[in-house]
Amino acid sequence: MPDQNKLQEMQILEQNLQNILMQKQTFQIELKETQSALDEIEKSGDEVFKIVGQLMVKSDKESVDKELKKKKELLELRMKTLDKQEKSLSEKLESIREEIMGSADSSRASKQSKSSTQSKNKDKNKEKK
Predict the structure, then answer these.
(1) What is the pTM for the complete model shown?
(2) Are the C-beta atoms of residues 127 and 44 closer than 8 Å to each other?
(3) Boundaries of every domain in the chain
(4) Distance CA 50, CA 53 (A)
(5) Calpha distance 55→85 (Å, rounded)
(6) Rounded distance, CA 63 to CA 23, Å?
(7) Which of 2, 12, 110, 115 has its CA 20 to 30 Å from the CA of residue 30?
(8) What b/e sequence results for 7-20 when a residue is b if at least 16 CB atoms lie within 10 Å of its CB, and e otherwise?
């Protein structure tokens, strides 16, 4: 039977991986929205508005453009970090799965070996009788 600690570790890694994937999805959506806003700024004239809280405020086109580009850079950096974390967790998870499967296989082989030995012993006992 696989080690309970390994199973627990595998479950924790799976949960962490799931969390990373959800964060990645959130950042991907935010990145698309930011890129869309940058595209709209390029198409627009000199008048640009941005939402601050519940207000729409007229803003300087250049400063909004810089702000959005900085935000895009930050989101891309976060995405790279999450990609690395995802890869690392996936590798650890795969390693633990292999360990668990290996121990399960060796456990099965051990049981089969015992079963085979017991069967042979029964056959020998029948022959003696």
Answers:
(1) 0.72
(2) no
(3) 1-86
(4) 10
(5) 37
(6) 28
(7) 12
(8) eebbeebeeebeeb
pLDDT, tens digit, for every residue of 69-115? 999 999 999 999 999 999 999 999 999 989 888 877 766 666 666 66
Of 104, 38, 97, the closest CA to residue 71 belongs to 38
| CA 71/CA 73 separation, integer angstroms | 5
Closest CA to 65 of 43, 80, 82: 43
Q: Please tell me the distance from the alpha carbon of residue 49 to that of residue 31, in angstroms, as a whole number.
A: 19
Report the first-to-last Cα separation within the chain, whole angstroms: 37
Residue 1 carries which DSSP code? -
